[in-house]
Amino acid sequence: MTQPLRVRSSKPPLPPLPPPQQLIDILVDSYRKQCMVDDEVALLDVLDTAGQEEYSAMREQYMRTGEGFLLVYSITSRESFEEIRTFQQQILRVKDKDVFPMVVVGNKLDLASERKVSVEEGKMLADEFNCSFLETSAKTNTNVEPAFFEVVRAIRNYNREMQGGPTIGGGLSHNGGGMGKMDMADDDAQAGCCSKCVLM
């Protein structure tokens, strides 16, 4: 699964995202949400591809337009975990980059008793990709918002690096938490960045 993010100014209030279960679902869908991440307004354009094979023909288009990616696997499925490396390599190839904003996410934490992929394996893969790692549960809404906030931070840091500026620390790292609110920002809030996030 993957998702793209983008940040821009916005006048009218934006509709809320659907429940977290629908964010990490098997359906390809897109949502838009304005939120606050580290005291900056962020407008998230979220595209959920869920890694489904029938949408593989469109996958490279998602990758071309995405500004950041959530690489999501099920902790109950080793096959989905092993696919993450393929997605990561494909993203870098399509982007023609050595690095790009990504976050590795182990989903279905509510099914920990059926775990097939250890926390340590998820951390090691994220370390290899030089990105953050979280485990989430869309069912219980555990760490779902922090995952989106972390990919926003990754995009912001990447953009600062590309512009030659300093990166901002304090983001999530290996199952950590982070600052951020999914509440709607005030109508008169100043614009932050608009991030196009792809969920794979």
Automatic annotation (TrEMBL):
Gene3D superfamilies linked: P-loop containing nucleotide triphosphate hydrolases
GO BP annotations, alphabetical order: signal transduction
UniProt entry tagged with the keyword GTP-binding: yes
GO CC annotations, alphabetized: membrane
Matches recorded under InterPro entries: P-loop_NTPase (IPR027417), Small_GTP-bd (IPR005225), Small_GTPase (IPR001806), Small_GTPase_Ras-type (IPR020849)
Signal peptide start-end: none
Keywords tagged on the record: GTP-binding, Nucleotide-binding
GO molecular function terms attached to this record: GTP binding; GTPase activity
PANTHER family registered for this protein in UniProt: RAS, DI-RAS, AND RHEB FAMILY MEMBERS OF SMALL GTPASE SUPERFAMILY
This protein's name: Ras-like protein
Organism of origin: Chaetomium globosum (strain ATCC 6205 / CBS 148.51 / DSM 1962 / NBRC 6347 / NRRL 1970) (Soil fungus)
